[in-house]
Design goal:
The structure is a homodimer of 452-residue chains. With 452 residues, the first copy, chain A, is α/β, with parallel strands linked by helices. Chain A has helices at residues 3-12, 23-42, 56-59, 88-97, 142-158, 170-179, 187-194, 202-212, 217-226, 233-240, 249-267, 308-311, 353-364, 386-398, 413-423, 433-438; strands at 46-47, 53-55, 81-83, 103-112, 126-135, 163-169, 230-231, 274-277, 290-296, 323-329, 346-351, 376-380, 403-405, 427-431, 442-445.
Chain lengths: 452, 452
């Protein structure tokens, strides 16, 4: 590649890990957003917005091992700033700053992560998050159950195929770590490793625990037994009787709440999709209670985000088809922003909207998607009727009708009709000398060529 | 302030020049967006989206003197990135990259400028832009006139009070600079100075031209005569006869097109608000033809963005009440991104949505604005009815009805009713033992206390 070519390529390129949305993609995006926002509104949520960048220290110490993925702005004099990494930390900062103790809000906006886009297919450095959170001191598990109800509603309405919602609780995980002999200061890092079970085999996960994180093989094997368990309310009941796990107060609290959660999920009619799964860990540091993640279970619907490590020798069945929603309870985060450490309990869910977009796009690739909503095209068969076309179009616009007219003095009728075909405009109003004299307009249905 | 206080303040603060939107502000924002998007859709526009950051070189050399206000990202390894400064340059890059030669699109998104927020009131470092552009080779002034029609429709529908749309043409300005004796290499910088006439007195503008930019006093005075002129199609006709100005081919081309523009504006029924104003310059480098700016003319509606220089000794009447829309033709920008310099003529308009928000907010400050759309609150007067409340709420949600329920086992009826009052929920469904036995629900209209 010579210098000129390099320059040309640069002139026209986007930065790595980002993308434009074309009109067709935007039409799909709008449809998806409308479905999701309708659901959030049905559940009584308000919405807020926060800036795309925050003070660097606002984001510091909130994301554990992922903090290295935060984008910083250049120091151009003034404050040190970072691009938001998610919508949850800005939400917590917002609550603390405005001393808000209860709110049910959704927030749909872009977040930024310096991930390696080549390594993890389908992941972008700029992507939408779509969050619903309930903040406030309430009776246990009621708002938590509503979050799961919302995931169930949205995934059903979007019609993405079969899905499953895995739930677990950080208190159960921590109790499990404790009884398995993990030192307390290693809970979070071991938790991060367990979180990789959806992308890596147990062998690889165990390997990381023992060889990288210095856990004893015995403790790792203990963990391995627990994280293979899946079930429903019955599993929670059984584990409450488990000789080892029941020694942990924390685990017992988590297991009792899990039972309560399932009782509300029954009332909400969503237990068909929810599984209590002890291998679910979630990477983020700030969760304190219930955690959940929804995955699509129809293999092949969407390319799985397989990392190169997972591809090397990992068993097929351990590869997750793709998480499309996740969340949990984080009762300590708001307090981190409050000078008096006043806590505001929160629970929320984030819809993995980018994954949803790509599935919808794949589905729509065969169909024709309209990218405008134009109802009428104002056309003419004869020359020198620009003024009349513009006049009629003005009347239509002023009456609130979506109308288009070609920006040419003398366009060909064929090219005007072709435009209607291309962009799916259903009606065309055809002007002619005779019609103008009679004070009428010919209206043609594009599909049938019927005229009135 | 002691160290601990500093730390506390930092914990809770936002970066300078940015702000959160609370639910009430978001409700207003949604209303404004809906009005604007409806108008764009009525005119047949599609929408696209581009990343919030672009390669640094994409933005380089597009914004003239304002380039210093571009936010750069920190070099964390990889490409050099900048936050978008407007939506026009990314649009041009998008067209070139995808070899699109005609499109009518709108784009609503946030842009970033390292402006001094303390000096210029009402200006933020992060703010929304709301752009409509028409790209393509068409007959002159038809798309240009449609842009002005759109501004007229939007400002009328938003009901912001009296407004005026100033129009001018870069070719008229350049022709004027030429006949006034401005050297060609100073056109753009003198143009930037003329652009300040809405914030500074003529005296200050002249001073900057002569003392800072090295223009002769004679040339400055010549310019001063022209830039005081305002009119309509008649002024364009008169200037075509102007002994000096008519010597410039460029000016004549601009003036002829101005006449043509006004003829289309008459058909579109918008000449009541449009003024041909020779003092309008617009700061950006990339305009090549028609330029325009809409200002609100009812003083006191909104705090004027008065810079400190302008306040010192500037005459009241020179202070603009506030630009709420602006745009123009930029036929060269797309070619800057194309390796073969293929031009795609473009014309567009940007709605000054942040200004619109603050006016709407001021208007709404007295009224009660609903921030949710909940139709029914499911309540109970007696204890131990949580399960029944949740069941009814589930039925409502499943039927697509916006419903809320309190996350308490035994909430007081009064606090449930109070929540309805506070958030404007019109109906409350009250459950009781007796009603459950009879298989009915009492439905109360909150405002009238009527029950059925």
């Amino acid at each position: 590649m010579n210098l000129r070519q390099t320059w040309e390529t640069q002139l026209m390129s986007l930065c790595q890990g980002t993308r434009d949305y074309n009109p067709k993609q935007m039409a799909i995006r709008e449809k998806v957003f409308n479905t999701i926002i309708s659901c959030f509104k049905r559940h009584g949520a308000e919405t807020i917005d926060t800036p795309v960048f925050e003070l660097k220290e606002t984001l510091t110490g909130k994301y554990g091992e992922d903090s290295k993925l935060i984008y910083d702005l250049k120091d151009q004099g003034g404050e040190l700033l970072s691009l938001r990494y998610d919508l949850t930390v800005p939400f917590a900062r917002y609550l603390a700053m405005n001393k808000i103790t209860n709110i049910k809000r959704y927030h749909i906006a872009k977040v930024y992560r310096r991930d390696n886009p080549a390594m993890t297919r389908g992941r972008y450095r700029e992507f939408y998050q779509c969050d619903f959170d309930i903040a406030g001191q309430y009776d246990p598990m009621i708002p938590d159950a509503e979050c799961l109800k919302i995931v169930h509603e949205i995934l059903s309405e979007l019609d993405l195929g079969e899905f499953r919602i895995k739930v677990n609780d950080r208190r159960i995980l921590d109790g499990m770590f404790a009884v398995c002999g993990v030192p307390a200061d290693k809970f979070r890092t071991i938790c991060s490793t367990v979180d990789k079970l959806d992308k890596m085999s147990w062998e690889d996960v165990k390997n990381e625990m023992v060889n990288e994180k210095g856990l004893s093989e015995e403790a790792a094997d203990h963990i391995g037994e627990y994280v293979s368990l899946q079930g429903g309310m019955d599993l929670a009941e059984r584990l409450l009787q488990d000789q080892k796990l029941s020694q942990s107060k924390e685990a017992c609290a988590g297991l009792s709440d899990m039972k309560l959660l399932f009782s509300y999920l029954q009332i909400f009619q969503v237990t068909d999709k929810v599984v209590f799964d002890l291998s679910l860990a979630r990477g983020l540091d700030y969760y304190t209670g219930i955690i959940y993640e929804a995955v699509l279970t129809q293999v092949g619907v969407v390319p799985a985000p397989v990392s190169t490590e997972a591809q090397n020798g990992a068993a097929e069945e351990t590869v997750s088809v793709g998480s499309v929603a996740g969340g949990g309870r984080y009762d300590g985060l708001v307090g981190m922003f409050d000078p008096k450490s006043r806590k505001v309990p929160c629970v929320g869910v984030s819809i993995g909207i980018e994954r949803v977009f790509s599935i919808m796009e794949q589905k729509a690739s065969a169909e024709k998607v309209r990218t405008t909503e134009v109802q009428v095209m104002v056309a003419s068969a004869q020359k020198n009727l620009l003024e009349e076309r513009l006049k009629l179009t003005t009347e239509l616009w002023n009456a609130g009708i979506k109308a288009e007219v070609m920006y040419k003095k003398n366009p060909k009728l064929l090219s005007q009709l072709q435009h209607c075909e291309d962009s799916g405009i259903p009606l065309v109003a055809i002007l002619g000398e005779q019609e103008l004299k009679d004070g009428v307009v010919k209206l043609r249905t594009v599909a049938t060529r019927e005229e009135v």
